[in-house]
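Exercise (ungraded).
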Amino acid sequence: MVSLSVVQASNAAIKTSLPAGLVAVFAGATAGIGEACLREFARCTSKPRIYFIGRSQESGDRLTAELKSLNPGGEYIFIKSDTSLLRNVDTVCKDIKAKETAINVLYLSQGSLNFNAGSYDSYPLLFQPFPHFSPPSPFSPSPASTDPILNPNSYPPIPLSHLLSRLPLYFQISTNPTA
Amino acid sequence: MALSYYARARFMANLIPLIAAAAPALRRVVTVMAGGKEGKVYPDDFAGRNIPRTAGRGHLASMLTLSLEAAARRHPGVSFVHAFPGAVKTKLIRGDEGFAMQVFKYVSLLMFLGRWLPNAECGERQLFVCTSPRYAPKEVEKGATAAAAGATRDGDGDGEKEATGIDGKDGSGVYAVDWDGESAGAKAEEWLAKYRAEDMAERLWKHTEDEFLRITGSVAI
């Protein structure tokens, strides 16, 4: 295991060991893990320029203000977008490519459900939709997608027999989050 | 699957030229899901519509790691990490969600009591994954900062060597990493070695590009 002190020492050394003006893109940064990493990134770097993408303008505004106070020397650009749609991903990327010629870090944490119930944000197996798609989170409504793969409406309704057959799986959730 | 795999692959495909063009000191793609939990992948059903429920995580984790492997082959100057963040209390289940979800929320809290990773620590560890020279690219260019260049071949300043990549070799450029920063265990490495022998990464990337073409008309923008 990498000890926390090693982690903290490495992070503290960033301002001296890595160049100033790092450019980063965070997708899925307005909640949870992405947000935590985003904060630390802003805090530990010198004059970063960070694009962060999420669905909630409110969260974006709140975070921008927070990051500005954490590290006033940095630039924080929130892009409101539902990146479950490929065409939205393209729009966001086009936007970023118009402004940047280089990116140091791409951090992808959108839709991070942990299938092993190893994190608090995993959707209980019993209630997972059939067959498999990312359920809407409280921070955003379902994407109104027309892409065949990404459109939940292209999947059949859940048969009751399937729900019942899944009941035993609920009790198979591992209790070890790091397993 | 959509958010988890295809959208992320699209981000990577679109932006990788910019990452490859960045200063050699830091060029990294980090995808957060289930690093180290790679399992059987279903190549006839990459989208995962009909795979067994319990196979979901292994399949998705493998797809993410294999997609990183395919990208690394094309861009050896960039490093790629598939990370597992650990048990983190996020606010997915709010007070106004249904009763069953509330029950689940409290059951989870109890089940993982003592094993929750505090949000702040998760953030610090994730930043480490994003920036530490431990997760170096396969090819380290001259021009990387002294700390990064020196560190990549013999540790990050505290005597630690580079992390073990998914092919079992240190510093090979693609890493599957657990919540604590350690590289994937034997089981995951076994699956990934099997898929390396079968060239599964290329097969998956071809499927991904075919889907991109079908849905958007282009392989990347």
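Further reading is listed at the end of the chapter. For now, observe: The helical segments of chain A are 4-17, 32-44, 57-70, 86-99, 160-170. Strands of chain A lie at 23-27, 49-54, 75-80, 105-108.
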